[in-house]
Amino acid sequence: MSDALIAEKRDELIAAARGAMGSAYAPYSGFHVGAALLFDDGAIVTGANFENASYGLSLCAETVACASASQAGRRGGLLAVAVMGGMGGAVEAAISPCGRCRQVVNELAALGGTDPLVLCVGTQETVEMRLSVLLPNAFGPANLA
Q1: Is there a contact between 117 and 6 (Cβ–Cβ < 8 Å)?
Q2: How far is CA 4 from CA 1, 37, 43, 79, 110, in A?
Q3: What range defines the domain where residue 120 resides?
Q4: Are 114 and 79 in contact (CB under 8 A)?
Q5: Nearest partner of 47 among 26, 29, 28, 33, judged by Cα
Q6: For residues 115 and 30, what is the distance between their CA atoms, to the nearest angstrom?
Q7: Residue 16: CATH number of its domain
Q8: What is the pLDDT of residues 24-36, one digit of tens each?
Q9: Considering Cα of 30, then 68, then 106, then 128, what sign does the dihedral take?
Q10: Which residues touch 140 (CB under 8 Å, ≥6 apart)?
Q11: In total, how many domains does the chain have?
């Protein structure tokens, strides 16, 4: 059922990530990123990067989306993640979540025991792979039990 829902919502998920890019605050890098999370009830939660003058305090789009999902009480059922970005909000090459974001998404996925599909969206291609491929042998909540 989850793969069918991902297929059904794929275009909507990508459109939501694209829409989230419009909310990016990226005055320093100029690189706007949008992310969208799909949950098993069909809900989509988005996030955009939010930079900071103290660069290390910047927030990636995927982290913002995960925090928004958690704030809304979503701590399970993560099926898919779409991410896209580019200079000035123009999407070109497919990008994948950075290492920190892979870990943050893994935490949210682990709460529901899922291995979400990650869609790295560009204008010429969309690269799809499971989070476990992007972050093999991940450290998560089970490691602390």
Answers
A1: yes
A2: 5, 16, 14, 11, 21
A3: 2-144
A4: yes
A5: 33
A6: 31
A7: 3.40.140.10
A8: 999 999 999 999 9
A9: negative
A10: 106, 107, 110
A11: 1
| CA 71/CA 59 separation, integer angstroms | 16
CB distance 47 to 63 below 8 Å:
yes
Rg, Å, the chain Cα set: 14
Alpha carbon dihedral 4, 10, 40, 77, in 10-degree steps, equals: 120
Give the residue numbers annotated as catalytic, written as ranges: 62
Strand 117-121 versus strand 126-130 pairing type: antiparallel
Please indicate, yes or no, whether the overall pTM of this predicted structure exceeds 0.90.
Answer: yes
Residues 6+ apart with CB under 8 A from 141: 107, 110, 111
Give helix 2-21 / helix 61-71 axis angle, nearest 10°: 120
Per-residue pLDDT of 68-108, as tens digits, reads 999 999 999 999 999 999 999 899 999 999 999 999 999 99
DSSP state of 50: B
Identify whether the C-beta of residue 95 lies closer than 8 Å to the C-beta of residue 85.
Answer: yes
